[in-house]
Write a structure and sequence with these properties.
The structure is a single chain. The N and C termini lie far apart (49 Å). The protein folds into three domains: 105 residues, RelE-like (YaeB-like fold); 68 residues, no CATH class; 86 residues, no CATH class. The chain is α+β, with helices and mostly antiparallel strands. A hairpin with a 6-residue loop joins strand 6 and strand 7. The chain is globular, with a radius of gyration of 22 Å. The strands form three sheets. The chain has a six-stranded mixed β-sheet with strand order 2-3-4-5-1-8. Strands 6-7 form a two-stranded antiparallel sheet. A two-stranded parallel sheet has the order 9-10. 38% of the residues lie in helices and 17% in strands. Helix 2 packs antiparallel against helix 9, helix 10 packs across helix 11 and helix 11 crosses helix 12.
């Protein structure tokens, strides 16, 4: 059985108290080791739109929301009883009809009262931003089918509120379009492939191969970049290059993240080799070294083949 974790789970876990987090982690580890254990208390969510949503009892009041099928268990969310159930009742896991990516989508009817027009007295109504775009065009950017009408009505005032309810790839594409940037349409998933293997799904869902990997994911929710890479970053990290490569970008675009993941990827792919990661100052090298240790977690032997130093120190 594939055991996966969603970024919505790590986000919700980070909002709990320390003691609550310990209890959730213990239950999550037990689930991964044996989801069919008699000690696991699963409860079917009758009011959820997605009939594969179940709750798992953590304590008298804490509940984990999981999506369970015959060959997959996905940790989706955790909170106190009522809030956890409300979260599940407002969402469904579906495969996007155009891109083929797995998405956790808010049920449109559950947020009707949230997205409301903003009126300014005596002001000219602002034109909708995406009224001219076809269904196929919007779908190619990952917009869920249920939200097409809302996207077409969105203007400058309502776009940010709407984006909060959309999958990340759709929200990012719409914000780019609104600012004059034409994003690349999402490439459809390969025929017969898993919707979780699509690049846009891999930024939100991750297969946990063992308890150690799950522990790293749960211990560092604020460092989510160490687990969930943006698809464009992952392509740079895992590509097979024929020579030297230069990755450029403005501040904050993720160059350091890509460098860290690339170093780890090369070390894992070449078990007989050593990998050197350099930067231009010793303080930065120390910061990179700390982040690298978080990234590789409980793989000390991998760390033995990864060196992080400033260029002056290496010289």
């Amino acid at each position: 059985m594939n055991f996966r974790i969603a970024d919505t789970f790590t986000d919700s876990l980070a909002k709990l108290t320390g003691e609550e987090q310990k209890a959730v982690k213990t239950t999550a580890f037990d689930l991964q080791l044996n989801p069919a254990s008699p000690g696991m208390s699963f409860h079917k969510l009758d009011n959820a739109r997605d009939k594969n949503f179940w709750s798992v009892r953590v304590s008298s009041d804490l509940r984990m929301i999981v999506h369970k099928t015959y060959d997959s268990l996905l940790l989706c969310y955790v909170d106190h009883h009522d809030k956890a159930y409300q979260w599940a009742e407002r969402r469904k896991l579906e495969t996007h009809p155009s891109t083929g990516a797995a998405q956790l989508v808010e049920v449109r009817e559950s947020v009707q009262e949230i997205i409301i027009p903003v009126y300014v007295e005596a002001a000219e109504p602002k034109p909708p931003l995406f009224a001219h775009m076809s269904d196929d065009n919007l779908l190619s950017y990952g917009v869920p089918a249920d939200w097409l009408a809302d996207v077409r009505r969105a203007d400058e005032d309502s776009l940010l509120g709407l984006a909060d309810h959309l999958p990340a790839e759709a929200a990012e594409a719409l914000l780019d379009l609104a600012t004059g940037v034409t994003p690349q349409p999402v490439q459809p998933a390969a025929a017969g492939g898993s919707p979780f293997d699509h690049p846009d799904a891999r930024r939100r869902f991750r297969v946990m191969s063992d308890v150690e990997e799950l522990e790293r994911a749960l211990d560092y929710p604020w460092e989510k970049w160490t687990i969930f890479l943006h698809p464009a970053q992952r392509q740079l990290v895992e590509r097979d290059y024929g020579g030297p490569v230069r990755v450029s970008g403005s501040a904050g675009t993720g160059k350091t993240i890509v460098a860290l993941h690339r170093a780890v990827f090369l070390a894992r792919a070449n078990p007989a080799s050593r990998v050197l990661l350099t930067t231009f100052s010793e303080p930065l090298a120390n910061a990179l070294r700390t982040k690298l240790f978080r990234l590789i977690g409980n793989e000390p032997r991998l760390g033995e083949r990864l060196d992080v130093h400033s260029m002056d120190a290496i010289g």
